[in-house]
Description:
A: about 450 residues, alpha/beta, Rossmann fold, GMP Synthetase, Chain A, domain 3, four-stranded mixed beta sheet, 11 helices, about 25% strand, B: about 190 residues, mainly alpha, 2 domains, 10 helices
Amino acid sequence: MSPVSVLAPDLGVAPRARIRRDTATQRPHIPWAEAVARELSALASLADEAQARARVEARLDGLRLALHASPFHARRLRDAGMHPGDLRGLDDLRHFPVLERATLAAHWDAIPTLPTASSECVVVRSSGTTGAPVNVVRDRRDCLLMWAVLRFLLARAGARLPRRPRVVLLDALPGGLEYSVRLPILEDGALHRVSVLRADAAERLHRVRPAVVFSDPEGLRWWTARPELPRPALMLTSAQHLPTALRDTLTRDLGVPVLNYYATTETGPLAWECLRTPGHFHVFAPDVWLEPDSDDVVVTRLRPSVLPLLRYRPGDRGTVRRDACACGFRGWTLTGFGGRGACRFLAPTGRAVDAWAVAWVFKHHALRAFRLTQDAPEGFLLELAGASEPEAHALTERLVAALRNLGWASPRVAVRHEDAAAWSAPAKPQPFRCLVTPQGH
Amino acid sequence: MAFSIPRLREQLAAAPLASPYPHELAVAVICDVFRAANQRPPRREAFVQFERHRGHALWREQVSMLAHVLASTSLREETVKALDTTRTPMARLEQFFQEIEPLTAEMVRANAFRQEEFLRVWIRAMGGALENETPAASKQRLEQLDYRKAMADFRAAEAARKKEADRREQLLQEAARREAEARGWRE
């Protein structure tokens, strides 16, 4: 069975997309995007910790104003006997209350500051692959931020852009959504969303000749199977565990640097995985501050935004420390990053299969939580919280199809409904487990 | 010897959480500080009068908390050294209780910022100085911490938000009315 037959467009679970066509309105934001990249670069090469902290702390002025202007934060701080003026330095943060993901989901419309007409706010919904979906209010610059960060990442990877660069968003999700728009904010380039489900995907990529490709591991895997495709200057992936073998194939065999970054819908980009030392995620300071010496990721966003985030806990695990990395980076680095941990399922043939290859199945399902455990060579247990019977049924069908595609001849998926409250741990659960041991061991 | 906020906080962290002092005993503990500095403490009647005319809902718990902090840290000993005769003890106490008016005992116990504010206001009212800090820096820090000012800011921000929300609501209603009228005209 080919991948196309499994990832058929008629699955129809892709979210409805609204594409902005008034891309000329990006132009006034180009100086801002350049400044963001410049500041990230400046801090990433600043060896002196005291100076780096001072630059980060300079951003607290804006945060204090935003906290005052946010009805939720103002009320919360007042109830706790605090006020935004108490926040004078990074060390003060630990005294402030933590914002849990569930609280953000419940108060998503009270946390933003009152937007102005020029903020051009939109509400986006996180996919909820590994947690409850959250409505997130974003202003225009929140929406454009990745293009600013991309300038910085291109420089880190030593990648050079041609004139009018083409960026491809290579999509392996069901639904087959495709579009093309101009991208003035990145050197007058263009953005093409290309679905691997379409029969002409490779042909389109040949025509587009992308300089930059964004995709998930499933899309990158699809790319590695087609070595004749043009070679971009940089490939980027996020939100999921990136298997080492896949990165090696792209970097070594195709000669394309692959940059894995850590971002959430709520916070925007948080860190990027070092190109020299896998597993080390360098923090995008001074745009965000990830609290050092904690076992959980705790984020304070220091870039101005309609949505002030103070000590937000996205539910991922990891520890941040000051670092002088072999790649030349100087700053704060996240290690032991979890919540999206690696797992390998064991196919009946004995082949180890990256469990995240089936992660797409869970996209766009409003699940409180899930865990997929391989408990027999052909047997899987799917634990679900907060899913209805019809949802669970549809999910199981897709999962069986995906497992067949990966090499299981007759996979069995048993569903067990769990109490949502019992799964409301502060950190995200490890979504994949394998209890099967390889034969001969 | 100057006061040290970190040292006082360390001592307070090691002390029991709640003040064990009932009101009368707490007043006695406070008066004892002035007595140790060879100053005549306020008469009991002065406290009664203060509570009657200028006291507030949190005053008694603040008195109890102050006695607890004085008895369980070096604040008492350092205050005795800092006190001079330029002002009367009651004038100093009146200034202190006026400036910490919105602080609850729970805030002083569990909130790092309000605890610091409580200690700094006491030190200023008693005419003390802080270790490794200029008077100007101490003044600036107290202004940053001032919870009375913060409460006023919260109220002003809330009123401004409400006014803006009302204005937007009115604009929406007017737009809806204009749209409805235009639709009626076309029909």
